[in-house]
Structures are given as C-alpha cells and as structure tokens.
Write a structure and sequence with these properties.
With 297 residues, the chain is α/β, with parallel strands linked by helices. The protein has 16 helices and nine strands. The longest helix has 16 residues.
C-alpha cells in the first residue's frame, strides 16, 4: 500500500506553507512541518486546540492543494459504526422484494442481489476506504464520540480495511490523507494518539492573527483590522465561557465590513458583538467592559 504522497504534493515544508497560504491558510512552521511529515509518511494527523483556530480548515485546504475530495465524518455523542461506515437501503430493498415474482423469490441468487452495491449506502469511512487514495478524510471532533467508537476507529486507521458480512473484505488500495480534530472536551486514548502525528494549534499572536485577517479579508481597512485583532486578544484574556477563536475574528471583520465601518468604536462594537461573542453571560460581561476594550484597541 502506497503512502498518501501524490503527484504534485509539496516537496518541502516552505512549499507547503506557501501553497496553504495561496488557499488563504496561514500555517506556522511547526504546524506545516507536522503536516508535511504526516503526508510523506502516510500517517493520520491529529490536531487539537481551541475552537475556531483553523483545525478543520487545514483539512479543507489539503484537499484543495492535492485536488482530492474532502470526505468529512462529523463525530457526535452516540455515533456508531454503521452511521460512520455503511447502511443498507432497507426501503429500496423492500420495494425490490415486492416487485419480484414468486419464482424470482425462490431463486437464492435473486434474493442475494438484495445485498449488492445498488442497495449499499456508503457513509464517510467506507467512501474513504474505496476512494483509491483520492480523498482527504476529515474525522471532525473525535473527542465528541465515545470510547467504543474511538477503539473501532483505532483499528480502522491501522489497516484501512473492513469486512461487510454480506459483501466480504473491503480494503483500501491506497490510504487517503487523514486529519482528525479534537477540541479536547475529553482526553483521547494514548493508543489513538500513537497512531497519529500530533500537533496542538493555539491562538495566534497579534501579528499572526493580523496577517490572517489581511489574508482572508484583503479589502478591510488596516486600522480596523488592527483594532479588531487587538480587541479579540483582550477578550481572550477575560474570563469568558467561550473565548473567541480566529473564526470569530474573521466573522467580526466581515460584520463590520457589511456596515461599512473603517474603525471600531463603541457603537459599532456593541451592534456587532454577536459576531464574536456567542454566550449570553459572556455578552453581559463584555458589554460592561466594552468602552475599555474599544479604547485599548
């Protein structure tokens, strides 16, 4: 089985950084290096970090860079293997049976056709296995799934093959690029981490975040971008239940742009605060400090 390196893949860490930048993603040296090694070795890349710092966006950019399909498995509490792998289309199977004659129903081969690929619903993991390496598999927010699903995923990432009882063994001819993300709502098992290249994505510095804003929103006024980024960093230093991520910084800039603002003042900040703060108690706390935040910005 070949690794995930494809024709046209970046040949060096700086080239990967530049190609990510061309797609609007600013990756630091550490993140770019971990990603580059993961691509070369065909290892899954596990990204942990705060909400909204660009973990999911990296997978999207990798799909764009390599010209591959992005297959996303959104994890949640209670997700099971069938929801992630495959299901049989029971409604179509029943309709098919009703359309058969008694003679056809007596034919075992005809009944066996009920479990052909025509009735198989591929979920994200099976699609990735059968993609022939032409996919980026994003397993998003793995920390929301339970321990049993994580154990199953551990086995899948080791072999990239599954057995469907009615079909048989299905194995990947080439491994897809795999990116896992976690917001660390719970601790992942060491066994899963050992299968992956790990990287923690923290909040960017003021200069880094300002560069991200200029990259993503090149039309925004320079002074406004500086004020917004400074204010967001002030917000992160406050005791908020849900500190704003980079995604919220960009949302705030976009909202101010819709209003045609060229600078951040108390009135526009109050009017658009819902773009960056997403919790009622946090809103009350920030409103009380809004004048100071705008003045600092």
């Amino acid at each position: 089985m070949r690794d995930a390196t494809a024709v046209g893949s970046p040949a060096s860490v700086p080239e990967l950084q530049q190609r990510l930048r061309n797609h609007g993603y600013l990756a630091g040296r550490g993140l770019a290096t971990a990603t580059f090694i993961g691509l070369r070795l065909g290892q899954p890349i596990l990204l942990e970090g705060e909400v909204g710092v660009g973990k999911t966006e990296l997978a999207k950019c990798l799909a764009a860079i390599h010209g591959r399909e992005l297959i996303r498995l959104q994890c949640y509490e209670g997700i099971d293997t069938h929801q992630a792998l495959y299901e049989w289309d029971y409604a179509r199977q029943i309709l098919h049976v009703r359309a058969l004659s008694e003679r056809e129903l007596a034919d075992s081969d005809t009944v066996g056709d009920l479990y052909s690929k025509d009735f198989l619903i591929e979920r994200p993991l099976l699609r990735a296995i059968r993609s022939g390496g032409n996919a980026v598999l994003l397993i998003d927010e793995i920390d929301r799934a339970d321990d049993e699903f994580e154990a199953f995923l551990l086995e899948l990432l080791s072999d990239f093959q599954i057995t469907i009882p009615e079909v048989g063994l299905v194995a990947a001819t080439e491994r897809p690029i795999v990116v896992l993300t976690s917001n660390r709502t719970r601790e992942l098992h060491d066994a899963l981490k050992r299968r992956c290249l790990y990287h923690w994505i923290g909040y960017p510095s003021v200069d880094e975040e300002l560069e991200i804003v200029r990259l993503q929103a090149p039309g925004v006024a320079g002074k406004l971008a500086e004020q917004v980024v400074t204010a967001v960093h002030e917000l992160r230093d406050m005791d908020l239940a849900k500190p704003p991520g980079v995604a919220e910084t960009l949302d705030w800039v976009d909202a101010l742009g819709v209003l045609g603002g060229e600078k951040l003042d108390g009135e526009t900040a109050a009017d658009t605060l819902g773009s960056v703060i997403k919790d009622r108690d946090d809103l009350e706390l920030v409103h009380a400090e809004l004048d100071r935040l705008v003045a600092d910005g």
